[in-house]
Specification:
Blueprint: E1 2-5, H1 11-25, H2 32-37, H3 40-53, E2 56-60, E3 66-74, E4 85-92, H4 101-115, E5 121-126, H5 131-137, E6 141-150, E7 153-162, H6 165-171
Parallel strand pairs: 4-5
Antiparallel strand pairs: 1-2, 2-3, 3-4, 5-7, 6-7
Helix pairs in contact: 1-3, 4-6
């Protein structure tokens, strides 16, 4: 598995991972009406824009196919004092999950946050998403909860935080 910084040419592949991962991960969590509306072309445009302001990292399998991605940057809400960095997204095709790729994708985001002078990081996870166990296994501590509405349905999400980001980076 190769982890590298994404380029603009990767946007359609990142969009495919994004849409397909949402559809598999959030089935029975997020309303089907929302999942059905997800669109590769729209997500491709979104990721082209995102890459101009945030670093995006991709995981390539041995055939050079993008099977996952991650991105992060400055914390966006200011809800948890002292948390200055945020993991915005990490998605992996369902068949590649549970193979250590998530940890590999999280590492460069954390390293970049540290290089930018950030000392802490948080991530938001839907409460019913099994990925919360991934973040807990990596030392993420529950910071609190919030409510999110998607297609008229109220969902609970949990913030997980790492108060010592440089330690997380060193431990890999």
């Amino acid at each position: 598995m190769k982890i590298r910084k994404a380029t603009q040419q990767d946007a359609p592949h990142i969009a495919k991972v994004h849409v397909d991962s949402w559809r598999s991960t959030y089935r029975n969590i997020v309303p089907d009406t929302y999942l059905e509306k997800l669109d590769y072309d729209h997500r491709t445009k979104l990721w082209k824009r995102n890459m101009t302001s945030n670093s995006v990292f991709v995981a390539e399998n041995n055939d050079g196919e993008i099977v996952g991605f991650s991105t992060g940057g400055k914390e966006r809400e200011g809800k948890y004092e002292g948390y200055d960095g945020e993991l915005y997204a990490i998605y992996i095709f369902e068949e590649y999950q549970g193979k250590g790729i998530g940890r590999l994708l999280l590492q460069p985001v954390a390293e970049e946050l540290v290089q930018a002078g950030m000392t802490t990081m948080l991530v938001w996870v839907l409460e019913d998403n099994g990925a919360k166990y991934f973040y807990e296994a990596l030392g993420g501590k529950k910071l609190g909860h919030a409510e999110l509405e998607i297609d008229g349905e109220k969902l609970k999400e949990t913030a997980y935080g790492w108060p010592y980001l440089s330690q997380f980076v060193k431990e890999g």
